[in-house]
């Protein structure tokens, strides 16, 4: 585990990066996985990282595991890297937004 100051900073950075509520993220994960063939069970919809972010959003800081911390660092890094990326085409921007939303960050929300 990390020390208390580092955990506090990560918690704040994570919650700054993840600007969707758990309900919004859960709904997005279900919608993004829906297709005409077969939909997964709602609690299994979406990419594993998105599901892990959803689980973290429903936890208290004191209940975090080492795996949770790894995912939190990954999400903060992903959102930071994508925030500075410039896309030329609308299709690229849409894909970027959907990628970010799958980890709980809606770039249209400031």
Structural features, described:
The structure is a single chain. The chain has 5 helices and no strands. With 110 residues, it is mostly helical. The protein is globular, with a radius of gyration of 14 Å.
Mean pLDDT: 85
Q: How are helices and strands ordered from N to C? A: HHHHH
Strand content: under 5%
Q: Give the overall silhouette.
A: globular
Brief summary of the model shown:
Helix content is 60%, strand content 0%. The chain is built from 5 helices and no strands. The model has no long low-confidence stretch (mean pLDDT 85).
Defining key terms:
5 helices; globular; 110 residues; mainly alpha
Which secondary structure elements does this structure contain, and how are they paired or packed?
Blueprint: H1 4-17, H2 22-33, H3 48-57, H4 66-83, H5 90-101
């Amino acid at each position: 585990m990390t020390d208390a100051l580092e955990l506090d900073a990560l918690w704040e950075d994570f919650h700054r990066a993840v600007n969707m509520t758990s309900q919004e993220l859960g709904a997005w994960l279900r919608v993004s996985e829906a297709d005409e063939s077969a939909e997964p069970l709602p609690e299994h919809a979406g990419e594993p990282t998105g599901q892990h972010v959803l689980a973290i959003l429903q936890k208290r800081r004191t209940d975090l595991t080492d795996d949770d911390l790894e995912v939190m660092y990954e999400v903060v890094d992903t959102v930071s890297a994508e925030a500075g990326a410039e896309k030329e085409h609308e299709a690229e921007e849409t894909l970027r937004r959907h990628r970010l939303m799958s980890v709980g960050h809606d770039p249209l929300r400031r």
